[in-house]
């Protein structure tokens, strides 16, 4: 005998009950995802992706476990051959630590391989690309940042992409009706 569905239990459809963690999660977001930068795909053409580790303090790890992070206005810059994440907001938990004065917007160092860093430096400085944080997630118990290498979209590019998306949606509707 299988488990009853969520609808038959009377729970709202837009929440899924995660049995292993005992928390409610949204269905479109994976369990290991901490934060997404949904505006990045709207503002940039992402051509390459890199996975970077983060240098974090203890209170930040606790806050990330509780998904208290936001990447909306964050950006990545290169300085002295190292990559840094700035503007990412990690809200401190009230009971995390009493002896540490947490700074939610502090600049955090990104951990990348030397050859990846040299590729990024070349692309950003010579070709005019931008480094964009796309997602923050857990991988084998460690916080990772999905870094996108992309070019900024202009206003008419954004309109063209939106027009294409609307046409695909309408096409699916028409095919579904017939």
Structure, explained:
- Helices cover 30% and strands 34% of the residues.
- It has a domain at 32-151: Small Protein B, Chain: A (Beta Barrel), CATH 2.40.280.
- The chain is built from 5 helices and 11 strands; from the N terminus they run αβββαβαβββββαββα.
- The strands form 3 sheets. Strands 3-10-11-4-9-7-6 form a 7-stranded antiparallel β-sheet. The chain has a two-stranded antiparallel sheet with strand order 1-2.
- The two termini are 37 Å apart.
- It has 178 residues and is α+β, with helices and mostly antiparallel strands.
- Strand 6 (75-79) and strand 7 form a beta hairpin.
Secondary-structure blueprint:
Layout: H1 6-9, E1 16-18, E2 23-25, E3 33-36, H2 40-43, E4 44-54, H3 58-65, E5 69-70, E6 75-79, E7 82-86, E8 89-90, E9 108-111, H4 114-127, E10 130-139, E11 142-152, H5 155-177
Antiparallel strand pairs: 1-2, 3-10, 4-9, 4-11, 5-8, 6-7, 7-9, 10-11
User: Helix-strand pattern, N to C?
Assistant: HEEEHEHEEEEEHEEH
CATH class of the domain at 32-151: Mainly Beta
Structural class: alpha+beta
Seen as an oligomer or otherwise, the chain set is single chain
Q: Give a quick account of the main beta sheet: strands, pairing sense, barrel closure.
A: 7 strands, antiparallel
In the CATH scheme, what's the topology name of the domain at 32-151? Small Protein B, Chain: A
Rg, rounded, reads 20 Å
Measure the end-to-end span: 37 Å
Which homologous superfamily in CATH is the superfamily of the domain at 32-151? Small protein B
């Amino acid at each position: 005998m299988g488990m009853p569905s969520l609808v038959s239990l009377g729970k709202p459809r837009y929440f899924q009950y995660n049995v292993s963690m005992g928390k409610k999660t949204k269905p479109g977001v994976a369990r290991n995802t901490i934060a997404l930068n949904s505006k990045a795909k709207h503002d940039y053409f992402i051509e390459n992706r890199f996975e970077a580790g983060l240098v974090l303090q203890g209170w930040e790890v606790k806050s990330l476990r509780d998904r208290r992070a936001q990447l909306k206005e964050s950006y990545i810059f290169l300085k002295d051959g190292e990559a840094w994440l700035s503007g990412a907001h990690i809200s401190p938990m009230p009971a995390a630590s009493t002896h540490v004065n947490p700074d939610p917007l502090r600049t955090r160092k990104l951990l990348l391989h030397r050859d990846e860093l040299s590729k990024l430096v070349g692309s950003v400085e010579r070709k005019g690309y931008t480094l964009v944080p796309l997602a923050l997630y857990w991988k084998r118990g460690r916080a990772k940042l999905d870094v996108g290498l992309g070019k900024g979209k202009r206003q008419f590019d954004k309109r063209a992409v939106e027009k294409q998306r609307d046409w695909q949606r309408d096409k699916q509707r028409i095919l579904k009706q017939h």
